[in-house]
Amino acid sequence: MLNSGVLFQNLYLQFVNEKELIINEIVKEIPQELRTRSFLDLAGEYEYENLPLPFYWNFSLDYTWKEVLRNPSLKGIVFPYELLSRLNDQNIFLDFLKEFYEQLNSAGRSDIDLILSMDWDSDVFPSLLDMMTFNALSLPVNSKIELAYRQLDSSKFQSSFHDFKENML
Question: Of 43, 44, 42, 33, whose CA–CA distance to 10 is shortest?
Answer without folding.
Answer: 33
